[in-house]
Amino acid sequence: MRQGQFSKSPKLFTPASQGDREVSxxxxxxxxETLTQPQTQTHSLSVGEDKPAAPLVVTFAGIGQxxxxxxxxxxxxxxxxxxxxxxxxxxxxxxxxxxTPDTGRGTSAGGLRKADAKNPHLLxxxxxxxxxxxxxxxxxxxxxxxxxxxxxxxxAYEQEGAVPYRPWVELLRMLLKNISTGMLVxxxxxxxxxxxxxxxxxxxxxxxxxxTLLPELRDLLPQNDRTYAHYxxxxxxxxxxxxxxxTLELLNILSKKTPLLLVLDDLHxxxxxxxxxxxxxxxxxxxxxILLLGTCRDVELAPGDTLLKLITDLRREQAIxxxxxxxxxxxxxxxxxxxxxxxxxxxxxxxxxxxxxxxEELARMSEALLSSSRSSESQSGAVISPFIAHNDEGGSAAxxxxxxxxxxxxxxxLGRLSxxxxxxxxxxxxxxxxxxxxxxxxxxxxxHEDTLLDLLEEALHAGLLTEEGSGTHxxxxxxxxxxxxxxYGRLSAARCAQLHRRAANALLQTHEGxxxxxxxxxxxxxxxxxxxSLQVAHYAELAGTQAYxxxxxxxxxxxxxxxxxxITQGKLPLREGVNESAPSKSATSLTEIPDPLxxxxxxxxxxxCRMVQGNFEEARNGFECILALRIxxxxxxxxxxxxxxxxxxxxxxxxxxxxxxxxGDYEQAYECYKRGKLVMQDAGVTSGAAWACLHLQHGSIINxxxxxxxxxxxxxxxxxxxxxxxxERQAASLExxxxxxxxxxxxxxxxxxxxxxxxxxxxxxxxxxxxxxxxLIATGVGQFTEALTHLYRALAIFEQHDLVIEMAKxxxxxxxxxxxxxxxxxxxxxxxxxxELAERMSNFPIIALTTGNLGEMAARSGDLLKxxxxxxxxxxxxxxxxEREHQCWCNIALAIALQDQGNLQGAVEGIRxxxxxxxxMKSARNIGGALIALADLRVTQAIIAxxxxxxxxxxxxxxxxxxxxxxxxxSTIQRAIVLDGLETELVVEGKVILANIYFLLGDLQAxxxxxxxxxxxxxxxxxxxxxxxSYRLLGRILAAQGEHEQAGACFEEALQIFRDxxxxxxxxxxxxxxxxxxxxxxxxxxxxxxxxxxxxxxxxTIFAACHAAIDLDWVDQSLTNTTSEILEI
Length: 1129
What we know:
The chain is mainly α and about 1150 residues long. Among the domains are: about 90-100 and about 115-180 and about 260-325, Rossmann fold (3-Layer(aba) Sandwich), CATH 3.40.50; about 330-390; about 555-635, no CATH class; about 1060-1129, no CATH class. The strands form 3 sheets. The protein has a 6-stranded mixed beta sheet, with helices on both faces. Strands 7-9-8 form a 3-stranded antiparallel beta sheet. It has a two-stranded antiparallel ribbon with strand order 10-11. A hairpin with a 2-residue loop joins strand 8 (about 465-470) and strand 9. Helix 37 (about 885-900) packs parallel to helix 39 and helix 46 packs antiparallel against helix 47. The relative contact order is 0.04.
C-alpha cells in the first residue's frame, strides 16, 4: 500500500412495415383474410344499410420517425423513464387480465378483481423549457414501438391556440390515414339491423359524428336530407358530446388490435376545446390499451390557467400521473457535451444549470467558435479562445452573446413582463443569480418600496424569480443563470459601472460589521465599477482570507493574487503558469514594491494554496520571491527582529525544500534544509520551534531515502523541541493571534497569520506531523502496531484543531497500514474518509495517494478491472502534480494489475517507466520495488514459456528459455531485497517470490527452507497476506516431496486466511494449487479426486469473475489434462 508523505407534423408509427404486418395477421387468424382484401365499389355502400358492422382491422403505415428528426442522447433520465415504462406496462397488464378467462381465483384479498383496479391513462411530463420533456416522450415512443404499440404524435403551437381541436384533428387524420375506405365505412359508418329496427329517430354513426371534426369524411356519407336535418337540430352541447363519444369510440376500436400511444406535445398551448376533449377521454378510457402522453411547461402557466385546474381535478380523481422532469446534474450535463474541451465543458455545466437544451445550444456555439478559432489560428498564428457568456467571480454575468435559440426562449419569457419589471430585473442581474430585497432597494432608490414589491411579485408570478426566507431575510433567485446573462447583456457599459458601484455600496451597508462574508462580491463590484484601488486590495485580501478559512484554496489564491496586483500596481512581475499566474522575482527591482513584507505575507498564502493543489513548481517560485522580498527590506532595528526574520526565512527555505521533495528531488530538498539551518545559525538561533521544524523536514527527507534509523532520531529530537516550545508558549499565555517577539505590524492592518508565523510560536500541526512521520518510519521497518499508535495520535491532534488536509493524509496512511495487516474493513473506512476530505479540499496530491490505495484494495480483493481504473486515475493526477515518488509506486501497482489480467506488454511498460523514474530520482527504495515486480513478471513469463502443468516444477525437459527467465528472476530478486530502505512488506514479498523460483527450478529443499523462514518473518511482522502466501507455497513444496497430509494442512491454512480477509484472487490461486495436488494423489488416494476437481472448478469461476486471464488459462489446462487422463483410463 502507498503511504503519503508530507416543426413537427403529426406522425403515426407502428412496429412493422405494412406488408409484414398483414402477413403476420393472416398467419395468426385466417378468418381475417377477407378484411384485408382490396375493396371494390366502396362508395356505393350505404351507411344505413342493414348489415353487420365488420370489426376494424387497422393496417398502419410503415415505421417512421419517432418524434423529432434530430434527437440528442438521453442522459440521466433513468428514474423518469422507468416510471413511464411502469405506467405503460400496467396498462398492458390490465388488458391481459381482462382477456384472461375468469377462473374464480382472480380476486385480491379485498375481494376486488385485478381488472377492477383503475389505471391512469394520462401521463403528463411537466417542467421548464428545454428540460427534456419531449426527449423523454420520444424515448417512450421508441420503447412502445419495440413492444408492438402504434404511436401517433401531435403538437400544439402558440400561434394556433385559438383554433378549436387542432391537435386532435391532426391526430385523428393520422390515425385514419392508412385505413382503407371500405374498412372505415364498414366498421364505423354502418349500423346493425337490430339497431335500425330499434331506432325510432335517426341516430348518426360514428363516421357522421366525426365528420364535424374531419370534414373530408363527408365525402364518404350519402347525401340524405333526413340525416342532416335531424342531426343539425341537436343543441351545441349535445353535438359536442357526440363528437367526444365518437372520438372515444374510434380510439377504442383502434386499440382492440394494437395498443395506442398518443403523444400530445406542449399542452400549455392547446385550445380550451382540445383540453376539454382530453379530460373527457382521460375520464372515460377504462380498460382500453390506450396511453395519452402529454408535455407541459407548468412554470409558464398563469395561476388561474384552466389547464392547472384540469390537472388538479384529474389528480383528485386519480386519473392522471404527473411526472416532474428535474434538471440534470452537472456530471450528466458534462456527459452530454463531453466531446468538447474540458474547460468549455465546465463552463457549460455552470451556465446550463441542468437544462439539456441550453447545454446543447451552448455546445453548438462553442463548436462554431472553436472552428473559427482554429481557422484564424492557422491563418494568423494567433490562438483565439472561444468565449461563452458566464457568471464571473462576483456572481453577475459577463457580457457575452447567447445562442439565438436560448436568447429567443429568454426573450419570450421576459416579453410577458412589463417594461418597468424588466428594467428592475436588469438592475438585479448586476447583483448576480440571487439577491436580497434590501440590496435591490438600495440600488433602486428612485422606486417606492411598495412599487418595488409589486414588480418583484410580477416577476415571481411569471416564474422568472423564486423567493425564500421570511421577515427581513428574504432572498430572491433568478429562474436560470442564463437569464442573468441575458439581462446583463442589455445594459450599456456606463450603466453597468454605475450599478456595480451601487451594488458594492449596498453590500457594505447591508453587511456592516460582517464584510468578510461578502468580501468576494464587494471586490468584484468595485473592480467592475472602477472603485478605489486601496479598497479593492483590502476587500480582495479579506475575500482571500474568507475563502482560505473555508478551505476554498483555488478561490483564495485568486483573491490573494488580485490583492497583490492591486497593491504593487503591476510592479511585481508575474510569470504565467499553466493555470494561473504565479509570482516571480525577476525582471524588476523589488525595492520599488510598496509594503514588501505585507506582499510577502500574501504571497505565502498564495504558495500554501498552490501546495494544496499540487502545483509545486509554481509554489517554489513563489517562495523564492518571498525570500527576495524579505531580503530587500530595510535593516532590522533590534536583535529580536533579526532573529525573528531569520526563523521566517529558514522556514521559507524549508517550504522550498518541501516542493523539491514532493517532486522527488531529494538532493535539492537537502540543500534547502542546509540553507535554512545556516540562516538560523548565522542569527544565533539553534533551538525552538523553527529549529525543530527544520529537523522534522530533514527526518522526512532521509525517511524517503530509506534511512529509517537516522530519520527516527531526527524526528524524535524535533518532537521533543516542539512539545517544549508549545509548553513555553502556553506558560506565557501567548496565543497564535498575538504578535510573536520581533513581529512588526506598524499599520495594524494584517488580517491573518501566515503558517510560518504560527510555527515560530509552536504549532500543534507540527507535533501531529511528527507523530505521523514516526508512524511512517515504523511502517517502513515492519513495526505496524507502533505505527498505528503514532498515526492515531496524529489524527487526534489534527481533529482537535480541525486540520482537514492533515486529517485526509493521515487517514490515508491509517488505511494503508490496516490494509497491510489485512484489516480490510478498517482500511476501507479510513481510505474512503481520506478521499472524501481530499476531494472536498481539492487536494490533488492526497487524492492521488488515496485513489492509488483504493486501487491496491481492489487488486487485493480480486477486482482487477476496478483496480486498473483506480491506478490510472491516480497516475494521471500524480503526473499532473509531478510527484515522481507516487508515479513510481503507481506504475508498479498498475503493472501488477495488468500482469494479473494477462496484459504482459502493459506490465512491462509500467515496470520500465517505474525503473526510469526511480533511477532518475536515485532512489534505491523505489528501484527495489520495481525490481521485485520485474522478477515476479519474469517468473510468469517463464511458466508461460514452458507451458508448465501439474505442480509447475521445471524438469530437464523444460525449455531453456524458461530456465533463463527463472535464473534472471532469481538474480533480480536477490539484488532487490538487500537494497537499503526497502519496506519490510516488500522484502518479505520478495522472499516469497524467491522461494517460488527455487520450487520452479526443482530445488525443493532450498524452496522449503526459504518458505519456512519467510513464513516466520511474515508472522513476526503481522503480514497476513504474505503469511498466507507462504502457507500456499509450502503446501505445493510439501506435496511435491510426497508429504501430502502436511501439504493439505498448509493449503487449508492458506485458504482460511484468504477467505477470512476476502482476498479472492489469492484464495482462487490456493484452490488451484490444492486442486492440482489432490488430483495428482487421486490414483493413490481414492475419494480425493472429486474434491480436487471441485477446487479447480471453483478457482476457475473466481478467475473468470476477476478477469485473471493467465490464471484462467492455467486452470483450464489443469481441467483439460484431468479430462484427458480420464478418457485414457
